[in-house]
Amino acid sequence: MISPGRDNDNRDFLRELYLASFAGEVGAFPSAMAPDFEAHVPPLLPWGGVHRGPDEFVKVVLPQLAAALDFGSMHLESISADGERVAALMSARTALGTEIWIAEHWIVGNGQLQRLRVFYDDTRSIKSVLAPTAS
Q1: Which residue segments constitute the domains of the chain, with CATH numbers given?
Q2: Rg (CA), the chain
Q3: 89 phi and psi angles, rounded to 5 deg
Q4: Whole-angstrom distance between the N-terminal and C-terminal Cα of the chain?
Q5: Within 10 A of 110 (CB to CB), how many other CB atoms are there?
């Protein structure tokens, strides 16, 4: 049986990471990741696939995500937890101003982020930001 206290602890842990990140702390999430952290990103995106470890997340995922999304527009709509599993729903705007919704499913263990699986409601709007333009 899972205790409600653990649910709240994991939910609050992630909420604090989101709030720190939204306030400009770029190292908030990477510093909370376990050494064997895995991020699963939709394969349709240029940075899609499975990324292992905090370093790969920082070097591969974050720069491309920062080019595609307006981080200042990100808003945590809801967050809930069931034991080690935490789900967050966010809204944001792409760099071109299109509103999108993002769902992130986290596994938290021993006070560290173990795994992330991210879902975007419209990957086309994100890909269009990064698509090369004809010259």
Answers
A1: 4-130 (3.10.450.50)
A2: 15
A3: -120, 125
A4: 60
A5: 7
pLDDT values of the chain reduced to their tens digit, one per residue, 135 residues:
444 567 799 999 999 999 999 998 989 999 999 999 999 999 988 889 999 999 999 999 999 888 899 989 999 999 999 999 999 999 999 988 999 999 999 999 999 999 999 999 988 777 776 655 444
Query: b/e map of 33-60 (b: 16 or more CB within 10 Å)?
Result: bbeebbbebeeebebbeebebbeebbeb
Both tokens assigned to 62: 């974050």
- Sheet containing 112-120: give its strands across: 49-52, 33-41, 112-120, 99-109, 85-94, 69-82
Residue 82 backbone dihedrals phi, psi, to 5 degrees:
-140, 95
CB distance 10 to 2 below 8 Å: no
Are 104 and 76 contacting, i.e. CB atoms less than 8 angstroms apart? no
